[in-house]
Structure formats: C-alpha cells, structure tokens
Amino acid sequence: MQSPPRAPTYALQEVVQLSRAFELHLGQQLSVNLTDLGAMEHLIRSGPLGPGELARRLGITPPAVTAAVDRLEELGHVTREPNPADRRAVVVTPAPASVEKAMSILMPMISDIDATLDGFDAEEQATIAAYLERVLDAYRTHIPS
C-alpha cells in the first residue's frame, strides 16, 4: 500500500490550483480566454512569431490559431505585420501596451514569490531548487511526448 502524500506534495498541488486561478484572473484582466492568454504568453516571452509557430507551441490547429489571433487583434493585444524574412508571410507581434498591462499584473506576484527565498540561506535555496527540478522531472515523465 502506498503511503499518503506528504505536506510538500499537498502544497505543490495547491500551488498548481492557485496558479490556474491566477491565470484565470490575468485572463479576465486582459479580457481573453485561456488559449488567447497562452498565445500572449508565448509572444511576450519570445517576441513576434509566425502563426504556424504559435499554433505549434499552443498545440492547436492553424484555423484555431487564426481565430485566436483575430480575437487578440480585435482587442488590440497584437498586430499582424509582414515577416521580415518572407514578405508573403506575417508575424504576430504583441502590442506594447498589452505587454505592459500583463507585466504590471504578473511582476508583483513573481516578485513576491521570489522574495520568499530571502528567508532561506544559500544551502536551503539550493535544496529547494533541487527539489523543484525533481518535481518538474516527475511531471515530464508523466506527460506523453
């Protein structure tokens, strides 16, 4: 018989649940659904992307990414611009005002999370980092590629 999960495992489960709740909050603040928010996250992190690459990263079909980009463009979150490498193609570019608004919501939360490490010495921080890396590895093993 398996032993019950320990307190840190339950805490991680709650982190995942709160992370989802925060994503919903961020989406509401930006007036977007979770798919569109995912697209914005990729664009904010990577900069302009072609629709095909965006579809690949999101794991959605080209028609679905077109619909998402249409919605984001209508809200002023992105623009379609000629691809500098291929003038027949376009890239989707995040609007600076939307990036600023998203970051104004994200950064205080990220800063608060990062600041929690200040209560731990360097060795404890290394242990926390190693634990989280192993948790990520466990997640990766259970996600089919």
Describe the fold and architecture:
- The chain is mainly α.
- The protein has one domain (13-117): Arc Repressor Mutant, subunit A.
- Helices cover 68% and strands 10% of the residues.
- The chain contains six helices and two strands, in the order H-H-H-H-E-E-H-H.
- It has helices at 7-30, 34-46, 51-58, 62-74, 96-115, 122-141, and strands spanning 78-83, 86-94.
- Strands 1-2 form a two-stranded antiparallel ribbon.
- Helix 2 (34-46) crosses helix 4 and helix 3 packs across helix 4 (62-74).
- The radius of gyration is 19 Å and the shape is elongated.
- The protein starts with 6 loop residues before the first helix and ends with a helix.
- The mean pLDDT is 96.
Summarize the structure.
By secondary structure, the protein is mainly alpha-helical. It has helices at 7-30, 34-46, 51-58, 62-74, 96-115, 122-141; strands at 78-83, 86-94.
List the main descriptive attributes of the protein structure presented here.
mainly alpha, Arc Repressor Mutant, subunit A, 145 residues, 6 helices, two-stranded antiparallel ribbon, 2 strands, 68% helix, single chain
Number of helices: 6
- The CATH homologous superfamily is termed Winged helix-like DNA-binding domain superfamily/Winged helix DNA-binding domain
Per CATH, the class reads Mainly Alpha
H and E string: HHHHEEHH
Number of domains: 1
| Percentage of β-strand residues | 5-15%
Unreliable segments of 5+ consecutive residues: none
Largest sheet, spatial ordering of strands: 1-2
Compute the separation of the termini in Å. 30 Å
Helix content: 55-70%
Q: What do the pLDDT scores average to?
A: 96
Structural class by sheet pairing and helices: mainly alpha
Spatial extent as radius of gyration: 19 Å
Record field, number of beta strands? 2
Largest sheet: 2 strands, antiparallel
Would you identify the CATH architecture? Answer: Orthogonal Bundle
**What would the principal axes of the Cα set say about the shape?**
elongated
